Amino acid sequence: LRAPSFAEQGEVGEERWLDLELKLVADVALVGFPNAGKSTLISRVSAAKPKIADYPFTTLEPHLGVVRVGGHGPGGRGAGAAEYIVADVPGLIEGASEGRGLGHRFLRHVERARVLVVLVDLAPSEGRSPSEQVRILLDELSRYSPDLVARPRIVVGSRADCVPET
């Protein structure tokens, strides 16, 4: 090892405060009202372990899960295997696009998803029909960012076992 034989005085440094915002990168985002079953769904299709309870706003931070499909090798890997990342986003409320509740904080995580899964409660406790839930959720997404409603989406009904027979 050789040590330097001389040193020079350095220049005055710079100082800066930065606010960095994390936006999750996910292939699929689960979007729905509070208590619609998003956390239950991600816990069933992936190894994610979100808190699940029968009250609104159990999920306060997004959870990620990896879903593996196809493949016949160990752990679902092998020929024909695919995997994708699913984000369980906290429940949205009407007015989320204007920042009501923690709307912007939740919606920003949806921005980078390629596909949206809109989860609707088929046995709604607040009296909203499934079609009304979809309309409100898509309206909130559109108001936040018009690009979101142009993305591919799947509408999934939850709690079908709780729907009264007619």
From TrEMBL:
Q: What Pfam families has UniProt attached to this entry? A: MMR_HSR1 (PF01926)
Q: Example GO molecular function term? A: GTP binding
Q: Which UniProt keywords apply?
A: GTP-binding, Nucleotide-binding
Q: Domain Obg: where?
A: 1-25
Coiled coil feature spans? none
Q: Please verify whether the record's keywords include ATP-binding.
A: no
Q: Kindly give the PROSITE patterns that the UniProt entry links to this protein.
A: G_OBG, GTP1_OBG, OBG
Domain OBG-type G, which positions?
26-166
Q: Which PANTHER family match?
A: DEVELOPMENTALLY REGULATED GTP-BINDING PROTEIN-RELATED, MITOCHONDRIAL RIBOSOME-ASSOCIATED GTPASE 2
Q: What is this protein called?
A: Spo0B-associated GTP-binding protein
